[in-house]
Sequence to fold (257 residues):
Amino acid sequence: MQIESGYVGEDGTGSTLGGRDTFIGMKGDWGQVRFGRMLTPLYEVVDWPYSNPGLGRVFDWGADTKSHYDRKGDIARYDSPDFDGFSFDVSVGRGDKDVNGSNHFGAAAHYTVAEAFTLHGGYEYNSNYSDDIDTQAYLAGVEIPLPGGFKVSAAYKYNDGVYKTDGVNKDTEAEQEQVSVVGEYWSGPWGYRLGYAANGDSDLDNNANVDDSESVIAGQLMYSHNGFLPYLRVGQHDAYNADEKSAFARVGIEYNF
Fold:
């Protein structure tokens, strides 16, 4: 079992106990099953490796066509064991517990080909996601280790939402495409990561002239020591439909647990 709090900000907002992955379950040679609140299978792949360093503001939560959750409560999730390089994850449960007909289904598959590269695929469907929207999201990605300490990761995500005026009749369909590309290099404990992500313009079936494309580019210098990863990150973005690009810088630490 696990109980995880959110980040404790200046005014405590978001610090609710159980606001992040909080579940009870069991595991064995057959895999693991959990019940509660946790990452959905598709989002787990979105989050890593395709939203680091600093690409989340576009590839993660920056899409204008909302189509999937990050964490989801009131679900059951099964994660398979490794079958000679292949594994899969499935989640199912309620969407918004206060909305009739709001349900969730998610799945992801992972396959390492000849110990050379790894393929990822993800899918998520949510009925009555919010404001009477039925949504779907698809993801296809790859991780390719290269000689000399290099690695390349790339992914494509497609978001689709159908807005319903009266909870039944279709009104507007919104679609949006997203891409992420990350290059990585390690030399001993020192590492460098360079990433780029972009969202295309939303495609609305009643208005094809939506100008809401966004992009971000960011680099990160890292040092690995005993499972901790202090880093310096710099980048530039026009996320959240900004009119002009702005720069950002972060100093932080990642860790394994």
In short: Residues 75 and 105 are 9 Å apart (CA to CA). Residues 23-255 form a domain with the Porin fold (CATH 2.40.160.10). The chain has one domain: 23-255. The radius of gyration is 19 Å.
